[in-house]
Design a protein that fits this description.
about 35% helix, 4-stranded antiparallel β-sheet, single chain, alpha+beta, Alpha-Beta Plaits, about 100 residues
Length: about 100
């Protein structure tokens, strides 16, 4: 199993519930679409102590599935439509368990 965690800081003018919900719904709909993606969850309600606005937690069968996800047309469309235009920074942490 490969875990893939992303945290984003949104651009100040886009830090709204509507934008966060678009990111959440778009990414979570990829389950069952992207081969090898076994779990996906997007959190959009950080505690005040957080320094990020949105967090993605996803699980893949293996590293090849993670690589395929990055290039999968459905994922690229969600990223280009709901994520990239609104984010200021992105941090990624991938690991095996």
């Amino acid at each position: 199993m490969v875990k893939h965690i992303i945290i984003w800081k949104l651009k100040e003018e886009y830090n709204t519930s509507e934008i966060k919900n678009g990111i959440k719904q778009g990414l979570e709909k990829l389950l069952g679409v992207v081969p090898g993606l076994t779990e996906i969850n997007v959190e959009t309600n950080p505690l005040a102590s957080s320094n990020a606005d949105v967090m993605l937690y996803s699980v893949f069968e293996n590293e090849e599935a993670l690589k395929g996800y990055a290039l999968h047309p459905a994922h690229v469309k969600v990223a280009d439509t709901y994520v990239i235009p609104y984010t200021q920074t992105r941090a990624c942490f991938d690991y095996t368990e």
